[in-house]
Structure formats: C-alpha cells, structure tokens
Amino acid sequence: MSFEFAEIARHAAADRSISPEEVAALRGAGWADGRMSREEAEIVFATQRAIENPAGEWADFFVEAIQNYVLNGSEPRGFASAQEAEWLIAQIEADGRVCSMTELELLTRIIERAQNVPETLKSYVLRVIEREVLDGTGPTRCGGELSDCHVSEAECRILRRVIFGRASDRPAAVSRREAEVLFRIKDAVSESENTPEFKRLFVQGVGNYLMGFAHSSAQVSRERMLELESFVSDNTVRIGGFMGRMVTQAPNAFGMVFGWKNDGSSHADKVASEAELTRFEREWINRHIAGNGEVDDYDQALLEFIAEETGQA
Prior knowledge:
Layout lengths: L2 H13 L4 H11 L7 H13 L5 H17 L9 H11 L8 H13 L5 H17 L2 E2 L5 E2 L6 H11 L12 H14 L6 H16 L10 H12 L3 H13 L4 H5 L8 H9 L3 H11 L7 H13 L4
Antiparallel strand pairs: 1-2
Helix pairs in contact: 1-2, 1-3, 2-4, 3-4, 4-6, 6-7, 7-8, 7-9, 8-10, 9-10, 10-16
C-alpha cells in the first residue's frame, strides 16, 4: 500500500468527507498492481464508516474497490474464498447492520458478478436483501427507493439481480431457498400497493424453481476451479501423455476429469422433465399457498401460470 493512499484516506476520515478529487487520487494510488490488498480494503471500509453524505464518486469507488478485493484478491479470480467472505460479512456487520445503500449495492454486485461465492455469503446476502426489502427505507444506488410498507420497483430490481445472479444458488435459475424468500415477502406485503413488477417477479421466480431447468454444472466451487486450472497449466510430459492416451483410448473419459456427464438424454428432454411437478413440489406449493390462510392474487397468478405451463389450464 502506498503512503499516498493511506494519507488520503486518513484525511477523509478526519474531515468526515471526501471530494471527487480525493476519490480520483485514491483510484490512482489504490490499483498500482491491479489488485486491492486486504490492508487497503480495510482502510476503504473504515473511510466508508467515517465519512458523511459522500459524493457519488465515492460510492462508485467503494463498490469497485471492495468487489475487486473480494473477487480478485486471491486465485482464481472471480471467486471469493471462505476467508474473504467471512471478512466481508464482518466488515459490513462491524456496526451491527448494513449501514448504507452503498453496502447493499456492494453485496448485490458481488452476487451478480462473481463466478461463485461460499455458502455463508449466499445465505447472508439473501437474509440482508429480504430484510431490506421488508424494512429498509431510502434511495438505492440503482435508482428508486426502498420502502418498508410495500415492494417498490427498485426493490424488485435488487431482488431480481440477486436471485438470478451468477453466484446465486442456481445461476440463471431459482432455488427453493430463493423461492421461499419470495413467498415470505409476498405474504408480508400482499395487501399493499406493490409495484406490478413484483407480481411478475414472484410468478416468474417461484415458477422457475418449480419448473425451470438448471444445469448441474452451471457453477463450480473455488476449490474445484483451482484444481482444474492447475491441471490445465501442467504441461509436463506426464500430463501430455495422459491426455493423449485419454483422447485415443477413452474419448468419453473427459467427463471423469472435468465433471461432464453425458447420460444420453437431450437438452429438450431434460427441460421437459424439469417442467413436470414432482410430488414434493406439489406438496411444497400447496403448503406455501396455505401458509397465509387464503389464495391471494399472487397465489392465483402463480397457479394459473403453472396450469398453463403444464397444459392443465
């Protein structure tokens, strides 16, 4: 870390403010080697907690800097390690809560951009988003407002970004845990004047969980990616010979190494199979619809969507 970086941050914390010029200087001093160090990231968080009413330039820098550290601070890039995830949660919870919309945007951006993150961080972000949608107030970084009495358009955008983010439970698809978050939010606000986008998100999200196809290899763990990168980068004769023999003697053996599985069924067959509700899924949907004691407008829209998709309309 450069002396200049530390001095700029120290002055900003002491003044409880930071100018666009100081933010530009931090940018120049903070990525000399293309990465953000742990020490620099902790200084950025300390500055975030100290300054009041920062300019938009600071918020943008804060999100980029911490995202850079969490996802690119160690190999492989694009993944958060367990230690980095624990560090991020501890930094955000240092004062007992997500203290700004900038921190909310940071968590959303990480789930949206990461290749994958540890389970602890996925669970934490979902809890935070649910809490902020139900109880949070104030302007969001992506435009619009958080509301504690209804679901706003801005809150729908945040929910969608997290649920369908690359590092979510099921990238480009919805997990049971995420569908249950949507149900809890719906039950809490079903009588409110919510944005029409929320009903669409609820139906699409829960419907995706029940009938959507999610590829089992859409995500790999950070540890598995390290193994694969190490294997690919090993250009010794031993590895070269092994790869050559595998191609000529057992062409399907790549699946054994890289986790690919060809079970003979087509993509269309798998999609059609996923679209059929299992007994567990039917029991799950019935239990959640019965949870608030009535079939509300959201439940009805979901049931109509399921009936149409399964040809039972």
